[in-house]
Amino acid sequence: MANLTSMSGFILMGFSDDRKLQILHAVLFLVTYLLALTGNLLIFTITTLDHCLHSPMYYFLKHLSLLDLCFISVTVPQSIVNSIMDNGYISLGQCILQVFFFIALASSEVAILTVMSYDRYVAICQPLQYETIMNPCTCRHAVIAVWIAGGLSGLMHTAVNFSIPLCGERVIHHFFCDVPQMLKLACSYEFINEIAVATFTTSTAFICLISIVLSYIRIFSTVLRIPSAEGRIKFFSTCLPHLFVVTFFLSAAGFEFLRLPSDSQSGMDLMFSIFYTVLPPTLNPIIYSLRNEAMKASLRKVLSKQEFAQRTMYLKAIFKL
């Protein structure tokens, strides 16, 4: 620990110094990562291959799955390797890339969830104008805006965060390069620019949250006026999973990022970080697929022997060209 102030990288402390707990953490994270990888790849695949799922709702869901797949891959694999190797060192370059992609993908996830709530609002509250408003061109532009907004947010945070002078040992009490934890390493009053950027990002996220809340207020008021109980159940089956994902992700992330940096580190901090970094990408495929009959039917169709053989022949024909 004596040379930590002179090295260019950082030490990630992770969850525990106990070797057995490190192995347990690596196994649990590996299982979770494989579940997230499988679930999101399945959703991305079936929403791409099945033409019945080429509506705006599933188009946005496909991009949410891609975001989740990338999001969990930013932090979890590195943490698994560190635990197995019993070495928490991460280079400066790796940390910069981790911060950039983490912030960019998290911001994009908030944006895509906002777009998805607006899509549900238009579908339920303005069904006659749905195809006109949510046309393919609009959907493409919305997704492009989501990725660009996330990239700009990541660039701002990364540029400001790594321009801050650091004092003391470069030890991060976390399993990844978490911005709030890195601010604890900053020299006194040197992180005011990062707070300004974080305030801007938080304000933008709050605007997204207000937009989502307003959309769902209109959605619920419309759905509750539907006389058919079956119709209400159908609408709630597509809206409630999305509302759960939004609430879970934003509440956990808000708890972590709205707190001022402190010198103490508790297990609660690590737990809440898991709530917004690991669990949402893992649970999203389950939430969206198990409560959606169209998704389940498409999954059975794609995994059927006949459909699988047709896809295999199609791919072979492509590779022969």
UniProtKB/TrEMBL annotation:
Q: Which GO terms describe its cellular component?
A: plasma membrane
Q: What topology in the membrane does the UniProt record assign?
A: Multi-pass membrane protein
Q: Which UniProt keywords apply?
A: Cell membrane, G-protein coupled receptor, Membrane, Olfaction, Receptor, Sensory transduction, Transducer, Transmembrane, Transmembrane helix
InterPro entries attached to this UniProt entry: GPCR_Rhodpsn, GPCR_Rhodpsn_7TM, Olfact_rcpt, Olfactory_GPCR
Primary location group: membrane
Which part of the chain is the G-protein coupled receptors family 1 profile domain? 39-288
Task: List the subcellular locations.
Answer: Cell membrane
Which residues span the membrane?
Answer: 23-46, 58-76, 96-118, 139-160, 195-217, 238-258, 270-290
Q: Name one GO molecular function term.
A: olfactory receptor activity
Q: Does the keyword Membrane apply?
A: yes
The superkingdom of the source organism is: Eukaryota
Describe the function of this protein.
Putative odorant or sperm cell receptor.
Q: Which family does it belong to?
A: Belongs to the G-protein coupled receptor 1 family.
The protein's name: Olfactory receptor
Origin species? Hipposideros armiger (Great Himalayan leaf-nosed bat)
The gene designation is: LOC109378221
